[in-house]
Amino acid sequence: MKTSTTDVSCAERSGGKRLAARRDAFLAAAREVFEEKGYAEATLDDVIARSGGSRQTLYALFGGKQGLFEAIISENCETIFRGLTPEQLASRAPHEVLREVGVRYLAIVTSAACLNLNRLVIAEAPRIPELAERFWKLGPGRSRAFLTEFFDRQIERGVLRMQDSSTAADHFLDMLSGTPRLQCLIGVREPPGPSEIDLMVEAAVTQFLDGCLVK
Q1: Mean pLDDT of all residues in 183-190
Q2: Which pTM does this prediction carry?
Q3: Which of 166, 192, 189 is nearest to 108 (CA)?
Q4: Backbone angles phi, psi at 129, to 5 degrees
Q5: Does residue 204 surpass a pLDDT of 70?
C-alpha cells in the first residue's frame, strides 16, 4: 500500500512536535539543574535524569552543556523580540515601538527565570569568564544591538536625533529596568506585575523621547 503525501506530512509534523516537546523538557530541566548546582557543577546526567530524554537526543539538539546554556539565554532574548524585525519597525512611531519592546523587555528581565539566570552568571563569572561573555553576547548584547539598529533607522528618517545610537540603547534599557531589576536581583522587592510594568514603561518612554524627538 502506498503512503500518501498527507500521511508523510502528518508524520513529519508529529515528529517535529515530539522533538520540540523534548527540547522544551531538556531546557526546563537544565534551568532547574543550573539554578540548584551552578553551571560548573551541573552535569548532563543531571539534565537527562530530570528530563527523561536520551543523551543522543540532547547532543543532537544542543551539542552539550554549553549549548543548553546558550539556548536558555537565546530564548529569553527571542521572547522579547519575537515577531519584530528592524525592517518591520522602521515605519512605526518610536513611542509605539519602545512601549511594545519595553513591556516585553521588562517582563522578561524581572521574571524569576531570568533573575535566576543572572544570579548564576554573576556567581560563575569569576571562575568561568567565557560564560559571562556568552551570556552578554546572546542576551543583553542582542537587545542593545536590536535597539541600536532601530534608532539608526529612525535617525535616517529624520524622526529621532541622538549623538550615539548605541549609547542611547544603553540609556533606554537602563531607564526601564535599572533600579527595579537590581531590587529584584537582591530580593528586596517582588517582580512588577503587568499594570506596574505598563506604568514604568510609559514613564521611561516619555522621558527618553523627550530628549530625542525632532520637534
Answers
A1: 94
A2: 0.78
A3: 192
A4: -60, -30
A5: yes
